[in-house]
Amino acid sequence: MKTFKAKGQDAAMLEKYGVKPNDAILAEEKHMGLYDDLINNHNAKLIAGGAAQNTARGAQYILPPSSVLYIGCVGSDSYAETLRNSCTAAGVRAEYLVDASVPTGRCGVIITGHDRSMITHLAAANEYKADHLKSPDIWKLIRQAQVYFVGGYHLTVCVPAIMALAEEAAQEDKVFILSLSAPFIPQFFKDALEQTSGYWDYVIGNETEARTWAESQGLQETNDISTIARKLAELPKVNQSRKRVAIVTQGTDPTVVAVQGEKEVREYPVRAIGMEEICDTTGAGDAFAGGFVAGIVEGKTLEESIDMGHWLASLSIRELGPSYPFPKHTYQPSDPKA
Fold first, then answer.
1. Using the 8-state DSSP alphabet, how is residue 318 labeled?
2. How far apart are the first and last CA of the chain?
3. C-alpha angle with apex 47: 211 to 289, nearest 5 degrees?
4. Distance between CA 52 and CA 306 in Å, rounded?
5. Buried b (16+ CB within 10 A) or exposed e, 128-163
6. SS3 category, 267
7. pLDDT tens for the chain, residues 1 to 338
8. Is the peptide bond between 65 and the residue preceding it cis, with omega within 30 degrees of 0?
9. Contact, 167 vs 159, CB < 8 A?
10. 75-92 CB burial, b ≥16 within 10 A, e <16
11. Phi and psi dihedrals of 237, rounded to 5?
12. Contact 1, 103 (CB under 8 A)
């Protein structure tokens, strides 16, 4: 997924393409002119993106070399080569299915102040097939992994591939993590999401995604994040060897965490930074997930893993796009007294 980002746009750009502030939507026909418009008329910057790929690069930013494998689908074009190069530079091993009949996916991002609106044309990303995942060479790599992370966007693409990972995780007592990714996932892909829910060891979403999930479930209480997090945590679970953890981020407000079977819902404050330091919030959730996943891979506690997520997100929002600073920064635990 290639990201086209234009900063400093006004409401007219949003109105032109029928987009709301802080939207996260799939592109329709009316949006197809956006990508050339951003490049030709708004000095957009091209950045390697894709939510799960951002998370993969984020986790590898913290983990030892060659710790992360990313699997997806790209076209046979220059954007695909850029993605490969980006993964290589980040130390991520990318094993792409290549579909030459469609272009590599694109995401147009319009930044207005500290708001970002994302319009995604999945293109090749929408053509992934489970046959690629189950091919001997790829499945061998899958079997070697101990933690699986799936972005919710893939629920629009290939549920059988997700279920293959989920079932492998449950059978082999590996960790399965899913991100809700965007409000339209629980809203329009409710059945696919429910099919995977029994396998979630960790489920991550922001407050809007959590509330949309609650609405899709017909829950009466759709405003209280603690209640929603607890409902997510208490969904039926296939692998009973570990409790499910539901994590809801809330921007600058504390992250809410519910653990299956535990009444107390915990809150963890984010790392505060000045508004003047914020460059772009695009990919902040992906960065949080990357830091959190890195913590889980390293065997850190839940509290430490969440802090690693907050740390990486605080770095990412100082950059343009879903990016991480180089030279690499070294994770430092937050001061609990701060």
1. T
2. 38
3. 40
4. 18
5. beeebbeeeebeeebeebebbbbbbbbbbbbbebbe
6. strand
7. 545 555 555 678 899 999 998 888 889 999 999 988 988 888 787 777 789 999 999 999 999 999 999 999 999 999 899 899 999 999 999 999 999 999 999 888 888 877 788 898 989 999 999 999 999 999 999 999 999 999 999 999 999 999 999 999 999 999 999 999 999 999 999 999 999 999 999 999 999 999 999 999 999 878 899 999 999 999 999 999 999 999 999 999 999 999 999 999 999 999 988 888 988 777 899 999 999 999 999 999 999 999 999 999 999 999 877 789 999 999 999 876 55
8. no
9. no
10. bebebbebbeebbeebbb
11. -130, 135
12. no
Structure tokens of 82? 């850029």
Residue 91, token pair as written in the block: 């130390």
User: Which CA distances in Å does 295 have to 61, 143, 289, 292, 307?
Assistant: 12, 20, 10, 5, 9
The Cα–Cα gap between 238 and 107 comes to: 35
Q: Distances in Å between the alpha carbon of 194 and those of 4, 129, 162?
A: 32, 20, 12
286 catalytic, yes or no? Answer: yes
One of 37, 99, 201, 286 is an active-site residue; which one?
286
* Sign of the CA dihedral running 192, 197, 199, 202: positive
Could you tell me the two tokens for 132?
A: 């690629």
DSSP calls for 123-178: GGGGG--HHHHHSHHHHHHHHH-SEEEEEGGGGGT-HHHHHHHHHHHHHHT-EEEE
Measured from the Cβ of residue 15, the count of other Cβ atoms closer than 10 Å reads 10
Could you tell me if 313 and 287 are in contact, meaning their C-beta atoms sit under 8 angstroms apart? yes
